[in-house]
Amino acid sequence: MDIAQKLSILTDAAKYDAACTSSGVRRASRPGMIGNTTSSIAGCCHSFSADGRCITLLKVLMSNACCYDCAYCVNRRSNDTPRASFTPRELAELTIEFYRRNYIEGLFLSSGVLRSPDYTTEQMIAALRMLRQEYRFNGYIHAKAIPGTSPELVHQLGLLADRLSVNIELPSQQGLQTLAPDKTKEAILRPMGQIRDTVRENKRELVKYKHAPSFAPAGQSTQLIVGATADSDRHILHLTESLYGKYRLKRVFYSAYVPVVESSLLPSLDTKPPLLREHRLYQADWLLRFYGFRAQELLDEDHPDFNPYLDPKAHWALGHLEEFPVDILTADIETLLRVPGIGPVSAKRIVSARRSTYIRFEDLQKLGVVMKRAQFFITCGGRMRPGLQFSSATLLQQLEAVERGDLPHSEAQQLSLFDAVG
Hints:
Elements: H1 3-13, E1 43-44, E2 46-48, E3 54-61, H2 88-100, E4 106-110, H3 117-134, E5 140-144, H4 151-160, E6 163-165, H5 173-179, H6 185-208, E7 220-226, H7 233-247, E8 251-256, H8 275-290, H9 295-298, H10 312-318, E9 326-327, H11 333-336, H12 344-353, H13 361-364, H14 371-374, E10 378-379, H15 392-404, H16 417-421
Parallel strand pairs: 3-4, 4-5, 5-6, 6-7, 7-8, 9-10
Antiparallel strand pairs: 1-2, 2-3
Helix pairs in contact: 2-3, 3-4, 4-6, 7-8
């Protein structure tokens, strides 16, 4: 099998991994080395930097041969699919040649479990070491740490990569036992804890010793598959919050399950991927990271899943109408962040602008507020937006119409939010 055939098979096999990002690290060009890494790189394979350049990562597997038999995976050992593997030299040469031709600016490297986690990781390390030391490649590398790999090899991998990730994939222990019997919760969480501790220690070393080698300077991430099991949004969101708090993850990625194999344990091949559910989980993830929300606020036992037709913040606001309306002239930034249609940037602009001027409704859109959502939940000097009328009974339908984009801007209902709250 030639390199082109291997590349076709192994890039196609890597497409199901969503945890591919290049943000969070900056490394300038160095004499005698090729490439550089900038913190403006952000995205999965194809992305755009701050200056408008398209940034591309080579997203590929070391091998799609796997000794595990995870029911949901297209690369499981019992699936009849073409197999291929790169040698470390082949992968290193392919990456550097793609870089020299300006096809890519970095590498995302994962792999099936070839023979064993340790053997697979040794192959990945050999390829990355050739890139870093022999070819002097200074660009971005994101590597997947294989669950079950020995701590020594995880440490070596982290010294060569900018970011590491350990995919949890299935959100519950029950799901792992049912669909991935070769994997255990402990085997997944152990390297995550090691990466967290080593990154923390490395930061202290770099303060003392400027030229100490960096260990995974862009941190670590993980991926959760959505829709392969019966786990609720509430369970997934609580797990996400725990991962951010306990393991200091940079990102949790969500991947809508794409039916690729027929199994009685999985959704049928005719089932569409829950892409809208994935989108809502990403929105909720941002509420946890940037808006000060807690998982227990967004969902509870009575409402374990998000409304797929409404963004999570609006979903929360409808359940807490007693918190509204919010006066934009007096509310603190934490309160403003709870208003649908107001984000961190627009909230800071509001607080800054009102120090020197009186803010009117017509000014809010210029400050970045999404008025088609926010107008239902705010006042300006104690007054609602002129001509806006609606009832608590119709507010849900009206917000869902906003989400679909088919609500006329001048549509009005019968009662104001004051009546709805009252």
